[in-house]
Amino acid sequence: MRRTAGLVVFGWASAAATTGVAYLTLGSEVVPIAVGFLLCLTFAVLLLLLHRALWLTVLSAVPALFVLVGAVQYAPEAALEQRGVREKVVIVADTAAGTSSDNHRFTLRGTDGKELEEKLGFNGDAWAPKVGDRLDVISDPEGAVPMEQAEEVDAAGRLGGLVGGTVTWTLMAVLAGWRGHVRRRRGRDSLAYQLL
């Protein structure tokens, strides 16, 4: 019971720690991704030790992805929602226009006719805006978070994914603790049974 509770607490603490690191390193995704990945991997190893079966550990990768993505992306999107400046803009140039690159950097003009200093980044060709398109963008006045299209900013959705992944981890930890307890009582704690 204590090991199961400890794993649940570790899962919630991992999600909180990754989110905290993402807040502390706004503008850089490398550090929170690395920290979150290590914590998610540690959770999976602890789940394997508690349950002694590989299948549940493999399944825990799905909620781990929600925890990682939600924690890493929630902080910058929340910062944009809280302090960001929303503007209507027109795309006047695209660095990837006429090239085979799908890494777009759009030059934008505001409603006042002036070009914005910051460029809007967009990766991929599917659904990429074109020169002349009108967009709503949100930019960070402090410059810590890159500009994004307003419709792409969804802090509540990221938080929902983060909480949903963490709750699923909790259910998996409880299941692992219960099954591990039952297996030990039945004497199936040998190496022959550990991966079944």
How would you portray this structure in words?
- It is a single chain.
- This protein is of the alpha+beta class.
- It folds into 2 domains: 2-81 and 154-193, no CATH class; 85-139.
- Helices cover 54% and strands 15% of the residues.
- The protein has helices at residues 2-24, 30-51, 54-59, 61-83, 155-185; strands spanning 85-94, 103-110, 120-123, 134-139, 148-149.
- Strands 3-2-1-4-5 form a 5-stranded antiparallel β-sheet, covered by helices on one side.
- A hairpin with an 8-residue loop joins strand 1 and strand 2 (103-110).
- The relative contact order is 0.18.
- Mean pLDDT is 86; it is low at 190-196.
- The chain crosses the membrane at residues 30-49, 54-75, 155-178.
Task: Summarize the model shown.
This protein has 196 residues and is α+β, with helices and mostly antiparallel strands. 54% of the residues lie in helices and 15% in strands.
Q: Give start-end ranges of low-pLDDT stretches.
A: 190-196
Q: Give the mean pLDDT.
A: 86
- By secondary-structure content and strand pairing, the structural class works out as alpha+beta
Strand content: 15-25%
Rounded to the nearest angstrom, the distance between the terminal CA atoms is 22 Å
Number of strands: 5
Number of helices: 5
Organism: Streptomyces swartbergensis
Keywords: Membrane, Transmembrane, Transmembrane helix
Protein name: DUF3592 domain-containing protein
